[in-house]
Design a protein that fits this description.
This is Endoglucanase. This protein has one domain: Glycosyltransferase (Alpha/alpha barrel). The protein starts with a helix and ends in a 34-residue tail after the last helix. With 547 residues, the protein is mainly alpha-helical. The longest helix is centred in the first third of the chain and has 24 residues. Helix content is 44%, strand content 3%. It contains 18 helices and 5 strands. The protein is globular and about 105 Å long.
Amino acid sequence: MWTVGTILGVGLFIGFVMMIVKLVPHKRPPPPPPDQYTQALHKALMFFNAQRSGPLPKHNGVSWRGNSCMKDGLSDSTVRKSLVGGFYDAGDAIKFNYPMAWSMTMLSWSVIEYKAKYEAIGELDHVKELIKWGTDYLLKTFNSSADTIDRIVAQVGVGDTSKGGAQPNDHYCWMRPEDIDYPRPVTECHSCSDLASEMAAALAAASIVFKDSKTYSDKLVRGAKALYKFGRLQRGRYSPNGSDQAIFYNSTSYWDEFVWGGAWMYFATGNNTYLSVATAPGMAKHAGAYWLDSPNYGVFTWDDKLPGAQVLLSRLRLFLSPGYPYEEILRTFHNQTDNVMCSYLPMYNSFNFTKGGMIQLNHGRPQPLQYVVNAAFLASLYSDYLDAADTPGWYCGPTFYTTEVLRKFARSQLDYVLGKNPLKMSYVVGFGNKYPKRAHHRGASIPHNGVKYGCKGGFKWRETKKPNPNILIGALVAGPDRHDGFKDVRTNYNYTEPTLAANAGLVAALISLTNIHVKSGIDKNTIFSAVPPMFPTPPPPPSAWKP
């Protein structure tokens, strides 16, 4: 009895102590403040809110923006269908499908890889809403309910002012989008493999983001199939010489889009036909995979998708290794991705760096930052791929570099963008203590005061040296020159104009480097959701023998 009583007494005492420990409130240490990449990311996403066209949602969060261009498409006698929605490209009100589609592909790619990070910082719903805003619009620009199409919309609005005269258009006039009253012509194309394949990539990537919404995901896949088929059958560039598209977003080739679009189509559908296209030796050759001496080799842009496609297909080789008949080209892409990563390192002199440390991927020409953030994203993402594959680094010739070298490069470039540069200037509007105050942007530069300023009425706001009355939160401006100099002048778009494509690259780079307390690295499996097993499932074992 004494033994039993002692055991019960000790048990009750321990239980009492544990109850007190649980009931007494504990002071948990507060979570660490968000790092600068997270803070900048919140702002960078808001730029897309400011670029929305059409009827804005109540929670858009940009007080100086309102509904705009509500008759797009309907007012064009040759089209007569609603093209309301989408995003304005830059400081103007033109909707260019080519860079818009690429921007949606990039945002989707970043969500597929880093969904947990977006969720942890409270931005997952926001970025998915932005992607859907873009894909909803893209679905309007062709017959998305058909399996075969013969045309797609290339852009809404006109920017060419070289023909003389004072014909109002989106570049001649300086107006808030809400006040536009001049005609906005629609440009269609009937042989535009590059645009069609990029739009297919955008819808295919988004279908993976929205895979839990089966109806919408299936709709995106169906549209992507029709677009990619159209692009493969009706060969041609979307930007013929002399066209508006050629002036502002000229496409140099469509072969890289065939590889890029084919890769995304494969991941969205699991259909090996698309992988066969993306990995065809002739396709790689035409896309420039062997142009190693080209000064632009490895520069990932809205025009040249090959570097991104090679990283994406290297992912397939690292994690699934599909083998024959894809292995030869996949190994080539993997090796060339390694070479591109080497080219980003200063010691190999593939690209010059400014004295302040910015890589000059466009060789000293204006508007450099869009290329810088894309390279930072690829480097950071590839380092995560290698880590996830338990590969500590990669070789540049005989020299081995760890994945941390790639992250250091990516961080150095983003740090430059965010203010670690000779001017101590953040090139993201609204971030930091010193940032551009005169972004080349019509809506941001004209007061939101209830007064309608006509086509020429806004010129005084364009020319004034005063800061913009509306802050274009999160906009990545074009950037400094090759000497790290910057002119905060509204009329000089080579320094101060932001674009959708640049901000998409910025968002992707920032989320890849955010340092938050969730499972680090990439989501290895979601992108492969539709991909069937690489090898046939073995048959079940025979049933037990019965005598």
